[in-house]
Specification:
The protein has a six-stranded mixed beta sheet, covered by helices on one side. Helix 3 crosses helix 4 and helix 5 packs across helix 6. 45% of the residues lie in helices and 12% in strands. The protein has 298 residues and is of the alpha+beta class. The protein has a domain of 160 residues: 2-Layer Sandwich (60s Ribosomal Protein L30, Chain: A), CATH 3.30.1330.60.
Length: 298
């Protein structure tokens, strides 16, 4: 275009070209403004995550103590394989005679872990029972002694003068004895322990009834404890045996006529087949000396 024509049409060319720049700037501003408004999604995701965590905590808190202990053990050692025998799509032959040392060590670790969970659970049950009775478990000469074994608990109720379970040399239960047996019944019923009850007495008792010896007294006291446990909460089917030993099994290191021998021993097991006489103690239970055959109540 000649220069003269360009000078004559210059204002018109400027007016034609200038509007085309404004829509581009407007669209750029609109595109930039479209990025505002996604912050609520991040806040909502955080809220949902927090609610999920809250519900998980509430659910775990409502579970049994065994599940709480297992959950605690998992978070202390989370790097444990959840697979049973193998992972993959091919079938696994579990009847092979040879096993790798790795699988054996894994099984042993799993057994040790389950055993540790069980012992931790039993220790917590023993601590809860002491709290129910408002007793210091580390106090010497306490009226109740709880021992943790590999398959349950051994609870000894001492019939001492300062805290008697029974009135004199009778089978009548004191107020303290009722309180202890009621708390014990609640613990047994809650955890569904199976129970054996053993009655023991000291020697040289001055019993007023003719023909009524320490054998009858120890057996009757054990049977009285059974009746009260059933009366308070325990199902009769959970009581496996009630036995009277008289003065044949005194506490080691104590004379036969010591009041330490006046006691009721309750063996609480987690399985029906387990027995405390075959169990190894964890916390040094009171060993018992040999003696005559016990008198057992059917």
């Amino acid at each position: 275009m000649p220069s003269s024509d360009r000078e004559r049409l210059g204002p018109l060319l400027i007016s034609i070209s200038s509007p085309s720049t404004q829509p581009a700037q407007t669209m750029a501003r609109k595109k930039a403004a479209a990025h505002h408004g996604g912050a609520w999604k991040v806040a909502y995701a955080d809220f949902v995550t927090a609610m999920m965590a809250l519900f998980m905590v509430l659910w775990i808190s409502a579970q049994d103590k065994e599940i709480l202990i297992a959950t605690s053990q998992y978070f202390q050692n989370p790097f444990r394989s959840p697979m049973d025998a193998s992972s993959g799509v091919l079938p696994f032959n579990s009847n092979k005679t040879t096993k790798s040392s790795g699988s054996q060590s894994g099984t042993e670790k799993e057994q040790d872990r389950n055993k540790q969970i069980q012992l931790t659970f039993l220790s917590s049950v023993a601590a809860d029972f002491y709290r129910l009775l408002h007793l210091d478990e580390n106090l010497s000469g306490k009226p109740v002694d709880v021992q943790v074994t590999t398959d349950g608990l051994r609870v000894t109720l001492f019939d001492r003068v300062n805290r008697p379970i029974f009135v004199g040399d009778t089978t009548e239960v004191t107020e303290w004895g009722n309180f202890v047996l009621q708390s014990m019944a609640w613990t047994i019923d809650r955890h569904q322990f199976r129970v054996t009850i053993d009655g023991h007495t000291r020697s040289n008792l001055d019993l007023k009834r003719d023909g009524y010896t320490a054998w009858e007294l120890s057996a009757d006291r054990a049977n009285t404890a059974r009746r009260l446990l059933v009366h308070f909460a325990v199902e009769p089917a959970l009581i496996e045996r009630v036995t009277g030993y008289a003065d044949t099994k005194p506490v080691v290191g104590e004379p036969r006529d010591s009041e330490e021998n006046q006691r009721i021993t309750l063996s609480l097991t987690l399985t029906a087949k387990a027995r405390f006489k075959d169990a190894k103690s964890v916390d040094k239970p009171i060993p018992l000396s040999g003696g005559a055959e016990p008198k057992e109540i059917k």
